């Protein structure tokens, strides 16, 4: 199971870095996706690794503000979030990719969801 952490309350324009860790297995050869779910809305993909070139896909709403990265030595995947907006408020999750549709953030392709971390942008 994966664990997302690093959420919190931040003012608009602020930054947070989310971490995704795994217990008992390595993330070295696992494609990871970051998703979020706001109250009353469906879960949506934010940034997901492409299996073909190891680059990250970003949704239009976060492109240019969020950065996906990984540190295999620490067995951790990160989501750096800058220039946060109130509409970024949501519970953020990381998940493992098990299937490979053309769209990197295809929700049914992912599993091993762990508890999310709340990100609130207000002020």
Give a structural overview.
The protein is mainly beta and 123 residues long. It contains no helices and 11 strands. Strands 2, 4, 5, 6, 9, 10 and 11 form a 7-stranded mixed β-sheet that branches. The mean pLDDT is 93.
Features:
single chain, 123 residues, mainly beta, four-stranded antiparallel sheet
Could you give the topology of this structure?
Blueprint: E1 2-5, E2 8-10, E3 16-22, E4 32-37, E5 44-49, E6 56-58, E7 66-71, E8 76-81, E9 90-97, E10 110-111, E11 117-121
Parallel strand pairs: 2-11
Antiparallel strand pairs: 1-3, 3-8, 4-5, 4-9, 5-6, 7-8, 9-10, 9-11
Write a brief caption for the model.
With 123 residues, the protein is mostly beta strands. 0% of the residues lie in helices and 46% in strands. The chain has strands at residues 2-5, 8-10, 16-22, 32-37, 44-49, 56-58, 66-71, 76-81, 90-97, 110-111, 117-121.
Please tell me how large the radius of gyration is.
13 Å
Q: Which ranges are low-confidence, i.e. pLDDT below 50, for 5 or more consecutive residues?
A: none
Number of helices: 0
* SSE class: mainly beta
Q: Indicate the overall shape.
A: globular
Average pLDDT metric:
93
Overall helicity:
under 10%
Main sheet summary: 7 strands, mixed
Proportion of beta-strand residues:
over 45%
SSE order, one letter for each helix or strand: EEEEEEEEEEE
SS elements, strand count: 11
**N/C terminus separation:** 34 Å
